[in-house]
Design brief:
The protein is mostly helical. The chain has nine helices and no strands.
Amino acid sequence: MAAEIATEAAKSAVEHGLTPGEYILHHLTFWQNHKPASVLDFSVINIDSVFWSVLLGVIACGVMWLIARRVVTSGVPGRLQAALELLVEFVDGQTKGIVHNAQSRKFVAPLALTVFIWVILLNTMDLLPVDLLPLVWQKLTGNPHAYMRVVPTADLSVTMGLSISVLLLCLYYNVKIKGVGGWAHELVTAPFGTSRNPIFALLLGVINFAMQIVEFVAKTVSHGMRLFGNMYAGELLFLLLALMGGAWGSLSIGGGLTLALLQIVAGWAWAVFHILIIVLQAFVFMMLTLVYIGQAHDHH
């Protein structure tokens, strides 16, 4: 199926005079409300990323709600209920080990579970044939050059949006748990402490505050960049494999058959391995979310 779609897309690319580089660039271009006027044009919206993120989020919440209402029973659990209970208990156990405030866990534990399932669904879009949904979109719009990217976590604006949301939660819990005064005191006394000497105290306060800001920025950027980098690399590799599958139609029988078989084997091997990456990256993103929120509860 993937090889056939890749072949059709490759033939279409040839018909429109696209080189392999232009084919990849087309697949890596977002459907946007307008072209950015500059690098810092924040009015640009990646419509495809927003659409798939919201759709998959609604599906995730809807499925969990249906399972909770219609599948979960007080009797002997079925396989689906047992799997869901294992997942809930696993996330709850991780939350208890990191966030020690029982009141906060009432919100943080469901948040972590939602983030884990949502990011898994966003990442799983990478397993679809790279030309399937873009070709469907082009047929629907009648525009052979229409853009459609379907892996939201391969969009830096999505992953950074998620990490900035975690940052805002950390700031909220810093104020809620420590109070405005307590957190302000921590900003100028951690990690190097303070001094009784007013001049040294002022100097250490400036250094401590700068270090705290650097820490917040570094955690937020690395949180979003880690997920984006892994999923972007996976998407790019799938595109290269699709090109391999599309190239066999233009070669001789022997060489073409070899490329076709190689594309199928390599595509399946990478897809199977990529399943591990999909789950692992969702787990890492969830755990870092818990760690950062847990740190907001700790006093220094």
